[in-house]
Specification:
Layout lengths: L1 H6 L28 E2 L2 E5 H15 L3 E5 L14 H5 L4 E3 L4 H13 L3 E5 L10 H8 L2 H4 L9 E7 L14 H5 L5 E3 L4 H13 L4 E6 L7 E5 L11 E4 L4 E5 L3 H14 L4 E5 L2 E3 L3 H11 L2 E3 L7 H15 L4 E2 L1
Helix pairs in contact: 2-8, 4-5, 10-11
């Protein structure tokens, strides 16, 4: 990314920074008391996910949560305490079979239930690819809108964590961004995660919700304790600028935020946009920004997302007739 911005005429120095230096990602000491401030509480990402799941189950008796190891809290602790509170008929473990998890979720959702199906790692979502792409995404269309599985939300941790290896570090969101009938959502922080997940669970369409696993404990911010939702398919302009538009999603937003700060020291004014919903994405917000800045940089965490970044760039270039740069 730094090389591309430099090629536009002005270099960025000290581009890379630790995630914890971001303005919207901070850390707290283990065991540190987290005070409540005006209805908000300092919360890490996995706790924000847990709160959203609790609210979803509490407010809708038709809601069910299941997946591998969710009944004891899951390997990332996102489902801690939910089986004890709501019972093992609503929060329960499944066999180690991703296609079975999603297929079962499609059936329950088609019966009018609100389903939250967890895939333990996004890397292992591929065995369920047929169920997601050929069944969940097409159910409404093939039935002429007589039935659907719009109550289905598929959660999965995604992305690199530093020691996961190639079977636990992938970012496969691009595959699903090209599928009509699905929504693809990725949050960048605890506040975003809670509001977006509740919106996904209550949306009348099947949604895939990827959670940046390396931020589960690292990302901490003030999160409202009450029930709230954030709009889907609406990007957020995190930082306004005039020279170049940066577009990203998920954990990488923290790195991009620091990049913008470094660029500002060299006189480069960056506009930073978090897509939040990757599909259907907010073309209007991005296009408006690129018309202003004249340059676009789409950044992502892994090669598997490159196809979607190229799609954004091509779409904006066609609409704005601008020179587009892609990371």
């Amino acid at each position: 990314m730094a090389m591309i911005v430099k090629s536009l005429g002005r270099p960025i120095s000290n581009f890379a920074r630790k995630i914890s230096s971001s303005s919207f990602v901070s850390t707290t000491l283990k065991g540190q008391k987290q005070p409540s401030i005006e209805g908000k509480k300092l919360t890490n990402l996995f706790s924000a996910i847990n709160q959203a799941l609790y609210i979803a189950l509490e407010t809708d008796p038709r809601a069910y949560l299941f997946g591998e190891d969710v009944s004891f809290g899951g390997i990332f602790r996102c489902t801690t305490g939910l089986a004890d509170k709501f019972g093992k008929s609503r929060v329960f473990n499944t066999p180690l079979c991703e296609q079975g998890i999603v297929g079962f979720g499609i059936g329950l959702a088609a019966m009018g239930n609100r389903i939250i199906a967890e895939i333990q790692f996004a890397d292992y979502i591929f065995p369920a690819f047929d169920q997601i792409v050929n069944e969940a995404a097409k159910l409404r269309y093939r039935s002429g809108n007589q039935f659907n599985c719009g109550g289905l939300t598929i959660r999965a941790p995604y992305g690199a964590i530093g020691h996961g290896g190639h079977y636990h570090s992938q970012s496969p969101e691009a595959f699903f961004c090209h599928v009509p009938g699905l929504k693809m959502v990725i949050p960048r922080s605890p506040l975003q995660a809670k509001g977006l997940l509740l919106a996904c669970i209550r949306d009348p369409n099947p949604v895939i919700f990827f959670e940046p696993k390396r931020l589960y404990q690292l990302a901490v911010e003030e999160v409202p304790e009450h029930d709230y939702m954030l709009p889907l398919s609406q990007a957020e302009v995190i930082r306004e600028g005039n020279d170049i538009t940066l577009v990203g999603w998920g954990a990488l937003l923290a790195v991009m935020e620091q990049a913008c700060a470094d660029a500002a020291k060299d006189g480069i004014s960056c506009e930073l946009i978090d897509l939040r919903t990757l599909s259907p994405w907010d073309k209007e917000t991005v296009e408006s920004s690129v018309r202003k800045t004249g340059r676009l940089l789409v950044s992502h965490e892994a090669p598997l997302t490159g196809g979607f970044g190229a799609e954004i760039a091509a779409s904006i270039a066609e609409g704005c007739f601008l020179k587009v740069k892609i990371a």
